């Protein structure tokens, strides 16, 4: 007797290490499209202009592959325990998703292999395409429609009895498959813990995130100065932020990630030595230090900016000489201004000395930063 297609999908998924899997049709994600259009109309995407370029395309799996009849979605656990974060006067905090190896490098090849096996096993399947994060596609909405979970008020996809420490990925196929049932709508009930806990008040409403205020966006995606009124609110976070997931009661169910590549020992781990980061002299040294990890994303200039801000926030007095050097030697204005801001909080006399020179900086924002100190 032939195995039914969903059992086959589940078996193959498990063979490739994907123990959470669902299926939805290749139809456009119409509800999510409305939410995306509203979101962009408010300017909540910040400088991630690619999100607002063509919303109907992001909601349509056919953007990724011309013929799509089924979208197989998977969720990959990346949680692991860690000692309570301690800054100890020199460490910044890293979001959990980035502790080990870069998930794009790990999940995509496995999805490709899973896709090839699906194509071989499903009669009529000829085209297959896998995606994880970078593709123009609303991955959370696809996962919701495939029944993997539901949107939390923090906008993360929450898996019932598992939580939200999961990456998402998809395999698109040109054969029809029976869809798995949606998990239903709002499961947060009256809880609002994430909304109140966000250090920067990045949620204008439940289920809506203003990326302009989100620490994850500011420290990873934003290529520019971090607005001065938000800098101290970043606290110790030097790369990403987990606060709205750490407080979520569904994450009590978290269990250790089975994939060894996400272990903290495989990458930078939960905290970064800020002095080490501030001492990285050039792009080559930066690329060597963070090869294979998600921390390459903001480039050296972004990570140095973040490290300077975190250094002031945690009171890293030992960073003063390095910060002073960064105000002097950096070519990127927003690294100079972040370093000056940090210096001002750690050693006001030295900051004023540097401000005298930086009041003549070629960049208007750096000049303004310096003049405010004089
Ligand atoms: C841009 C982006 C960001 C931006 C914007 C995040 C955001 N909330 O939109 C920034 C840089 C801030 C970010 C941060 C993070 N991200 Co990100 N990000 C993306 C990316 C590339 C696109 C997301 C997007 O389209 N946003 C636009 C909004 C409108 O879409 P949406 O989040 O899907 O929101 C939907 C809901 O709001 C829903 N909706 C609206 N109203 C309502 C009301 C109800 C009742 C319901 C049910 C639904 C609903 O409809 C919207 C449209 O689908 C995706 C990958 C991808 N291609 O999808 C990863 C992705 C969402 N990110 C991911 C991760 C891991 C993170 C971080 C946890 C990383 C970190 N620790 O720093 C944080 C989480 C912050 C947070 N609370 O969301 C994972 C999320 C996994 C999960 N379990 O949810 C994804 C899926 C990447 C992946 N492949 O694993 N991210
Ligand atoms: S990731 Fe951090 S800053 Fe962003 S919404 Fe969640 S708690 Fe707020
Ligand atoms: S903290 Fe509460 S409101 Fe926020 S996502 Fe979790 S259950 Fe929903």
Characteristic key phrases:
374 residues; alpha+beta; 2 domains; four-stranded antiparallel β-sheet; three-stranded mixed β-sheet; 16 helices; 11% strand; binds cobalamin; binds iron/sulfur cluster
Question: What would your notes on this structure say?
Answer:
The protein contains 16 helices and 9 strands. The longest helix is centred in the first third of the chain and has 19 residues, at 103-121. The strands form 3 sheets. It has a 4-stranded antiparallel beta sheet with strand order 1-2-7-4, sandwiched between helices. A 3-stranded mixed beta sheet has the order 8-3-9. Helices cover 39% and strands 11% of the residues. The chain is of the alpha+beta class. The protein has 2 domains: 5-79 and 100-173, no CATH class; 193-255 and 267-373, no CATH class. The chain has helices spanning 5-15, 30-41, 55-58, 103-121, 139-145, 193-197, 215-221, 228-231, 243-246, 274-278, 283-290, 299-314, 320-329, 333-346, 348-358, 364-373, and strands spanning 20-25, 70-77, 91-94, 128-131, 150-151, 157-158, 166-173, 237-239, 271-273. The mean pLDDT is 96. It binds cobalamin and iron/sulfur cluster (2 copies).
Summarize it.
The chain has 16 helices and 9 strands. With 374 residues, the protein is of the alpha+beta class.
């Amino acid at each position: 007797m032939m195995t039914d297609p969903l059992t086959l999908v589940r078996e193959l998924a498990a063979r490739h290490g994907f123990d959470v899997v669902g299926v939805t049709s290749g139809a456009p994600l119409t509800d999510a499209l409305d939410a995306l259009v509203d979101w962009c109309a408010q300017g909540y995407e910040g400088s991630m202009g690619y999100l607002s370029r063509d919303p109907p395309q992001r909601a349509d799996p056919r953007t990724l592959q011309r013929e799509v009849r089924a979208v197989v979605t998977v969720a990959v656990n990346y949680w692991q325990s860690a000692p309570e974060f301690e800054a100890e006067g020199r460490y910044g905090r890293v979001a959990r998703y980035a502790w080990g190896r870069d998930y794009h490098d790990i999940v995509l090849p496995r999805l490709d292999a899973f896709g090839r096996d699906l194509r071989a096993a499903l009669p009529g399947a000829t085209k297959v395409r896998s995606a994880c994060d970078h593709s123009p596609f609303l991955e959370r909405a696809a996962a919701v429609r495939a029944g993997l979970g539901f949107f939390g008020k923090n906008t993360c996809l929450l898996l019932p009895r598992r939580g939200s420490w999961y990456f998402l990925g998809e395999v698109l196929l040109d054969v029809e498959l029976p869809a798995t049932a949606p998990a239903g709508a709002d499961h947060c009930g009256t809880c609002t813990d994430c909304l109140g806990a966000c250090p920067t008040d990045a949620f204008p409403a439940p289920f809506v995130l203003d990326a302009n205020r989100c620490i994850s966006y500011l420290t990873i995606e934003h290529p520019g100065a971090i607005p001065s009124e938000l800098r101290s609110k970043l606290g110790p976070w030097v790369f990403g932020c987990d606060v709205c997931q750490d407080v979520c009661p569904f994450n009590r169910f978290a269990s250790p990630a089975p994939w060894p590549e996400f272990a903290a020992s495989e990458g930078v781990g939960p905290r970064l030595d800020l002095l080490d980061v501030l001492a990285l002299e050039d792009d080559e040294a930066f690329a060597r230090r963070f090869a294979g990890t998600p921390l390459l994303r903001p480039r050296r200039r972004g990570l140095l900016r973040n490290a300077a801000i975190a250094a002031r926030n945690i009171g890293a007095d030992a960073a003063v000489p390095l910060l002073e050097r960064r105000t002097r030697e950096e070519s990127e204005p927003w690294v100079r201004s972040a370093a000056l801001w940090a210096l001002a909080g750690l050693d006001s006399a030295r900051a004023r000395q540097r401000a005298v020179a930086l009041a003549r900086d070629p960049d208007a924002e750096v000049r303004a930063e310096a003049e405010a100190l004089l």
